Structures are given as C-alpha cells and as structure tokens.
Amino acid sequence: MSATAAQVADGLASTAAACRARLAAATTEEKNAALLALSRRLVEERGRILEANAKDLDAGQASGLSKALMDRLKLDDRRINAMAEGVRQIIALPDPIGAVDSLVRRPNGLQVGRMRIPLGVICIIYESRPNVTVDAGALCLKSGNVPLLKGGKEAFHSNGVLVELMRESLAEVGLPADGIQAVATSDRAVTDELVQLEGKVDLVIPRGGEGLIRHITATATVPVIQHYKGVCHVYVDADADLATASDIAFNAKVQRPGVCNAMETLLIARPVAQTLVPQLFPRFEEAGVRLRGDRAIVELWPSAEPATDEDWGTEYLDLVLSVAVVDDIDAAIAHIGTYGSGHTEAIVTNNYAASQRFMREVNSSCVLVNASTRFNDGFELGLGAEIGISTTKMHAYGPMGLEELTARKFVVFGGGQIRT
Amino acid sequence: MSATAAQVADGLASTAAACRARLAAATTEEKNAALLALSRRLVEERGRILEANAKDLDAGQASGLSKALMDRLKLDDRRINAMAEGVRQIIALPDPIGAVDSLVRRPNGLQVGRMRIPLGVICIIYESRPNVTVDAGALCLKSGNVPLLKGGKEAFHSNGVLVELMRESLAEVGLPADGIQAVATSDRAVTDELVQLEGKVDLVIPRGGEGLIRHITATATVPVIQHYKGVCHVYVDADADLATASDIAFNAKVQRPGVCNAMETLLIARPVAQTLVPQLFPRFEEAGVRLRGDRAIVELWPSAEPATDEDWGTEYLDLVLSVAVVDDIDAAIAHIGTYGSGHTEAIVTNNYAASQRFMREVNSSCVLVNASTRFNDGFELGLGAEIGISTTKMHAYGPMGLEELTARKFVVFGGGQIRT
C-alpha cells in the first residue's frame, strides 16, 4: 500500500517536473492564450461541470455534509461565470516572469540584476470550494509554474472536470497538458509522499484547517507556506476620531465574520472607552454580535460576558467579539504581541506618533492605519488575485499573488570579466 | 536525556524570542553603535580570542584534525583584523529595516506599501571556521534579527569568546545581550529540538555538508534555507571569442577550486572544440588540472581520462574538470538541466540570441554571460556581504545579504475606509 502511494506520488511529480522547463519558457502570449481558452471552456462546457458537481452534491447529501459545506460545494451558472471572469482578470495581470529589477553596474563593469523565474512544481492542498481549483491553476499557469492540485474529496468530481478543462486548454495552444494535474486520490499517503519529493516538488501550499497544515509541515521536506489562523485586532487610540473608529470596528467584525481578516478582538484606549462603548456596542448587539469583555468593559457594559484568557487567542470566525480596555498604545502593542497571530492589525488614530509607532512595531502581515482589517486581501491590496495569505515570514508574508509565486535569479552581463 | 535537550533548546529559543521585538525596533544608530563596539572589542580583546583559539587548536591537534581543517580553525592577528574590518563594512551597508517600497494609491484612496521587517530568531548551524560566527552575528544584528549560533565543536572555545564579545557589545549600547546567543553544546539533540520550535525559531540556515543539511531538513518544522552543492558549468558557444572563453574557463576552474562557485564542467560547442581545446587544455594541465572528457574530448586530447556518467554530477571542489562537447546551445541547456545543481552557470558568446536564450532558460541562482562563475558571491554581486548561498528558490535564491534576512509586511495608510 505504502509502496503504491510512493509510486503514485512519484509518477505525478516526475510528470510535473518534466514540464517545468517548457512552462518556465512559455511566452506571455502562450500563457494568456491558454487562459483565454480556459475561460471560454468554462462557459461552453458548463454542462459537464454541473453534471460532475451534481455527483458531488449527491454524495455530500448522502454523507450528511452540513448546509454550509453543501453551499460552498455547489456550482451554478453564476459561480461558473465568476470563475471564468476570474480567469480573464488573471489574463489582464502583468506576467511577472522574465522581469529584471535592480540592474546595476558594478565597479568592474559587470551589470548585475535579478530576473523573476517560476518556482517550479507547486503542490496545493485545499478543501471543498471548487473555484479554488481554477484560481490556483490559473495563477500557477500565468506565473509559469506547474501545479499539482489536491482538492477535498467532497469536490472530487467537480475538481476532476475543472482540471480536465485546464489540461484541454493547455493542449489547445500547444502547451503540455501535464502542466496541470489533479492529485485524484483520497489516499493521504500519496500527499505525504509528494511533500517529501525534494527536487521534483518545489513548494507545498496547504490551505485548510490548522491540523492539516501542521501535519503537512511535520511531514514535508519540501518547503511549505503556511496560512494559520487570523486573530486580528483593531486598536482604538486615545486620539481616534470615534465615529471613524466605530465604523471601522463594525465593518471589521460584521461585514463578513467568517473570514480570516475579520476582527476578533477590539482594544480600546482607556480615555475613550467610556465614550466609544455606548456608541458602538448597540450597533454590535443589533447585528447579533455577542460581546465578551475584560473587567473594565463589563463594568461599562454589563450585558457583555466576561472574557476568559482563552478568548484573547481565539479566532471565532463568527459574530463573537472580545473587547479589552488598554492603558495606552504600549499596552495595545503588548496585547497584540502576546495574543495575535501575525495576520492583520489596525489602529484608529489621528495622532501622528501613534500611527508611526504602530506601523513600525506591529509586525503582522498587514498593518493598517484608519482602515478596516478586511482590506488584507490580495485583490484589495492590488495584487490582482491571491493564492492564500501567508502568516509565516519566509518567502511571502500576507496575501500571495503572482509575484509571490516566483523567485529571483541573479543575471550578470559581462564583457570577459574574471576574478583576481 | 531527551527531556534535557528539549529544555535547553526551549530555554535558548524562548530567551531569543523575548528579544525579537526590541531588536526589530532598534534604530540604525543603535545597531551600528553595537557593531562599532564589536569591531573595537575584536581588536582590543584579541588576547582573549587567541587564548581561546589556542585551546581549540590544541584539542584539534590531539584529535588529529587534518592540516586543512587546522588552517581553517586558526586565528591570528591578520584574521582578527579582517573580522573587525568585515564588521565595519556591515556598518557601512544601508539598514534594510523599515524601508517601504511599492507604495501605491488604490482606487479607494488607501495607500498600500510593503515595509521590510526582520525575520526574527534565526538558527545558524555551521562548521569550523570561526569568522562565520562574527559575520553571521553582525549580519543578523544589522537586520534586526536574533541569531542562535551553533558552530562546530572544533571551534567551541573560539566561538564562545566571539559570541561573548558580541553580547558585551550589545549590552554596551543598551541593547539586550541575549540578542545573540551561542548554542554551546555538542549534543545534536538540542539542535534537533531547536529546529522544531515553531513560533520561537523563525528560520534555520544550515551551512555545511549535504548530510547535515538533509538531516536538518528532515527534522525541522521551522523553515530551512538550504545550500546544496555547486556543480557549475561554463558553456563556450560556437560564437564565442575563444581568448575570452579560455580566460573565463581557466579562471572559473583554477582561481579557487575549493569553493562552490568554481566550475566543475566545461561544455564546448562542437564547431569550436577543435580550436579551443589545444589553446586551453595546456593551461589547465600546467595548473595541475586533471581532465575528464567525453568521447569527443578524449579523441581531441588523448591525455584526458574518459569521464563516467557520475562525473557529470560531481562537485569536485578540486583541480579536476569534466569536459563535454555539445552540438549546440539546446544540448548545453539540456545537459545543465540534467546534471546541474541550480547554483551558477555561464555562457561565453558574442551571439545575441544565444545570450538571451541562456539567460532566460537556465534557471540557476546566478546566470552569467561572458564572465567567470566565480562572481556568484554576495560581495561581488553588490550585496555587501553574505550569509550563505541558497540553492532552493524559496525566500532567497543565490547569495543572501541583509535584504534576504528580512520579510515584507503590507502597510496600509487609510482615511477611514471600510469594505462594502
């Protein structure tokens, strides 16, 4: 059994690795033509997609999948059109490959620059939403990488057809169909083997629960980019405009509570707590947000439950909010340092020095002044699209777009120089 | 025993992690003052250094260390002055921390940029040369990182004093002495524990033999930057200037054969082989280079030994060279793809199209046109100094200088924006 998993993994990885050079050398025209073919096929072949998706939905129903998961799994015309539109947006993004930056002339006349190249074979492990298959595949293709796409078993048939459409699109424009492959097995032993194939697999991106990510990290010898939880904070400074603070905090918590860049903890500077709380908390309560506060908050707003120490480190992903009163910006930064997850933190202030300190000393993947945490997103930050949000500082930190799927090699243009 | 190793590792890592915020927030002035104090102490306290080094040399003699290793271990006035001078060069380098690039205004008025921040706690594992202790420590300090320095047991006493001088220099300027620590144990179990302390250790850089690197990679859950072997190629194109080709090939092989950016394989385009070989090979033979050739080479130069298939993938690090005749640039690129290690490759040509293709299609960490492979070095490429050469594409590819010891966080300057 284990030998078979190793063979399956090696077959997939060897096939992918053999396509690296061709995809790395593909022109922008070739890659965009394949993407255009894909966006067309997604629309034209929606019958095939919906048929496969129906099988997944039936299986999901039979296995008692939750309503939320069934909703994430379900494809319809609107969602298929959105996938096709997403692909067209990726066509419009600049091709990062081959771009040279920092070209300088050294004292000995050598011209030295750094050229962007693909990373190579990228194994992406994700869960039930089938649109990730198309997003991830299209971003890898545009950046000259070769993806191995391992979706969740709930979306097995849907992902199968979507990968098939991508392979047909590659072949249509003369690129190797094997430039995109599905890891079409629910045998976790295959994934465990894949993430140890140094030399054939260049990167693993697990997108999913913390358990999955920790398992992959412990198993892999190939580099892993991790996306752990987002325990995001908004700190309302003593010098904040309180109407702005109220709007930002409300937006950060309520606009879409189930995502990683939603606020989980609100920190309020002591001098403004008494004024802000009665302005803001009724809005939260009307929106159905359950409030958990420290002692000072519970005194000001008795309907808030007392927060436990566990609350401060919890990613609720729900209409629940922990709130603490802090003495000043030092206490706010210290709280974030203790309980934060390095994802997204915002300060609301009109104080110049406070904004500068927060910006400099809070080292989360995205730090904002006077804006909602919800802007930590590849599209909102101008990357055009994203393949995940890295919460570790290695290689990429924060949303990963096309550039984050590349490396830079040194290029040196000489005129016969030798070292002495 | 294992519990003790875990405790030692956790103590080191926790102490280091507690210094992260202070070192990350240190001003350039503070960091440069500490480096200046270090360069002064290295000179003033040379007595302490030489005394400790004498203990290591005695132990090395007693344990029968090779002459080459004894030479690498030995410190004297000249080498100590060179260490101090290296530290002064790092003072002169720009501080990467806090620099913001790519600041753009988004359609909604948000200003989005990317600010460089330190990686955090970096565990550097290296072998006998004690100057690495000072180089690595100084580079980490300048970039606001907190190193855990694990040197080879041969240099135990020397490294101990050098780290002590760094800690005294930090304390002298009011930075925490624990901002630099030695992993002063030869118990490998401690290192094995350290590289699994996610959250407290941010990066591991093993510099040493392939066995060490593979062991660390397999053990670590913390990200690892690998520096594997350099099987570097020079390809002499059909349109090369042969005098230039001869000089570059000779320099790449002979100037310092024991380093990772020295040429190990020479590829010669068939049309020029007959002319180049009799010009170049006598120079190699005079310099004591043993030549191993493919059939075409052995026919042209019968004193060359026949190369085996193993030769093409071998990093000799010695006055040995494998040479093959290739039909054209396609064959050269294919040979490099099969046998190269992604380190350094050069083409010698006056043909524009050939130079462009080689530059684009060879994805080694450094690709050169008409220059010696020996230029793949942090100092020569303009990084000022280096902490190693990465041969994997993640995070850094090629020489790592100060910038490669940083990450970039997103910084967002808003005016009350919320998501709708």
Topology:
The structure is a homodimer of 420-residue chains.
Chain A: H1 2-25, H2 28-44, H3 46-62, H4 67-73, H5 77-92, E1 100-105, E2 111-118, E3 121-125, H6 131-142, E4 146-150, H7 156-172, E5 181-182, H8 188-194, E6 203-206, H9 210-219, E7 232-236, H10 242-254, E8 263-269, H11 270-286, E9 290-293, H12 295-300, E10 305-306, E11 320-326, H13 329-339, E12 344-348, H14 352-361, E13 366-371, E14 389-390, E15 398-399, E16 406-417
Parallel strand pairs in A: 3-4, 3-6, 4-5, 7-8, 7-12, 8-11, 9-10, 9-11, 12-13
Antiparallel strand pairs in A: 1-2, 2-16, 14-15
Describe the structure.
The structure is a homodimer of 420-residue chains. Chain A is of the alpha/beta class and 420 residues long. Chain A folds into 2 domains: 2-102 and 120-227, Aldehyde Dehydrogenase, Chain A, domain 1 (3-Layer(aba) Sandwich), CATH 3.40.605.10; 232-380, Aldehyde Dehydrogenase, Chain A, domain 2, CATH 3.40.309.10. Chain A is 44% helix and 20% strand. The first copy, chain A, has helices spanning 2-25, 28-44, 46-62, 67-73, 77-92, 131-142, 156-172, 188-194, 210-219, 242-254, 270-286, 295-300, 329-339, 352-361; strands at 100-105, 111-118, 121-125, 146-150, 181-182, 203-206, 232-236, 263-269, 290-293, 305-306, 320-326, 344-348, 366-371, 389-390, 398-399, 406-417. In chain A, the strands form 4 sheets. In chain A, strands 10-9-11-8-7-12-13 form a 7-stranded parallel β-sheet, sandwiched between helices. In chain A, strands 5-4-3-6 form a 4-stranded parallel β-sheet, with helices on both faces. In chain A, helix 7 links the parallel strand 4 and strand 5 (181-182). In chain A, helix 2 (28-44) runs antiparallel to helix 5 and helix 6 (131-142) packs parallel to helix 7. The mean pLDDT of chain A is 95. At the A-B interface, helix 1, strand 2, helix 10, helix 14 and strand 13 of A face helix 1, strand 2, helix 10, helix 14 and strand 13 of B. Strand 13 of chain A pairs parallel with strand 16 (406-417) of chain B, so a sheet runs across the interface.
